[in-house]
Amino acid sequence: MLAGASGAELGELLAELDAVASSASAARVSVAVEAVRRGEVAGSGVHGWVREHAPSLRQGGAGPVSRVAIEVATAGSRSDDGKGPAEGSPLGIVWDAVREGRVEAGTGCLVLRESARLAPLLRPETVPTVTSALVDLVTAWGPTLMRRLRPRLLADHGHHGALDDLQQRLAGAARLSMPHVESADLTEYQLWMTPEQAATLEAAIGPLSAPQPNDETGEADLRPAGQRRVEALTQVCAVASGTESLEDAGSPATLHVTIPLSDMQASTGAGEILGSVATGTLLAPETLRRLACDAAVVLHGLGAAGEPLTLGRLERLFTRPQRRHLWLRDRGCTYPGCSAPAAWARAHHVRHWSDGGPTDVSNAALLCQRHHTTVHRRRLRAQVRRRPDEHGRYVVWDLTDGSYDRASDTAPPGGDAVPTPETAAPAVA
Ligand SMILES: [Zn+2]
Ligand SMILES: [Zn+2]
């Protein structure tokens, strides 16, 4: 019979079956109400009785059916005519919708809970209107949207200041959990924000978390949305904590990391974070080499015998005039096809600082956080030119993986790189 039906007939058939299923599940609740009302079953026994006689609800749904049955039967025994919940009460409105098959018992319970939550904030005469609106919303759009429109309903029907009160209460409940660090694994946070806080966060990370396919190199942006979002958030934090400033030496935003010097140079072992809630978190050596470009990190080296060594922060970091020079020279991230502005970029040591690369503008290239990670991860080398090439670039990247390791370490990066007048000759070993 199905094989002979046309496409249109299949649609009609599905609609008819759906109507039958809705009526059947409405009737199922009515039967349960009747059983409770007659005293066939009561209290905690209702759930088991429903599961016993409606085996399909054992997969889920017996709870809401028995909850609605008990509430409706109890309300009926209290009402004047003994028939059911008072007309116009939240329970009465929801019961009508369940009985008519417009909403499932489970959805009805969600509406009742939402209505009860809103009731103290509403002008009393608007409770029926709001409950009906909740039924309509949940029928048309589902529970998530119903709850999302809570502020709208409060603004329209709430007591004076109800929405303000709600948002104030929300502010008290909003929080960011402490980091939960599993050794060498991802750090987990839980974050609850007020609508205003969430809007601020989304505004800050929104444009930064969009996929960034590279038109020039043709690379697609394959990062999943979650990764793009967390990288955008990290970028916002890095800029907000002023990590490009030298003046923050003692600021709490500074990350202190300890690592044996030999490990740092050989790219082995791991660095360990000190003096923050993330203490003990291990960082891979390649990550450390990248962080060494960064002003917000203080590296505490350990010598061969484990004795602490100060790793020259001042020699490692580009000075304000140097950074200004780079801003003017590079304009923004120097990675091909990237349009991140200079304010978002950091100065990268083209020949890594941990390999003896000098902190000199002729050994520097501005990179946005994302491409800074890329060039360290893929070990890319750039040529820093004294004069711009035909595309106006002073920094020209070799985008083949491992180009850093293939570059001769005895010559300055890029054949024609020379010190700029404002800096001393780089002591490239
Ligand atoms: Zn770097
Ligand atoms: Zn970039």
Automatic annotation (TrEMBL):
A Pfam match: DUF222
Positions of the UniProt region annotated as Disordered: 405-429
InterPro entries: DUF222 (IPR003870), HNH (IPR002711), HNH_nuc (IPR003615)
Bias (Low complexity) ranges: 417-429
Annotated HNH nuclease domain residues: 321-373
The organism's place on the tree of life at top rank: Bacteria
Family: Belongs to the Rv1128c/1148c/1588c/1702c/1945/3466 family.
Name the record gives this protein: DUF222 domain-containing protein
Species per Swiss-Prot/TrEMBL record: Phycicoccus sonneratiae
Top-level taxonomy: Bacteria, Bacillati, Actinomycetota, Actinomycetes, Micrococcales
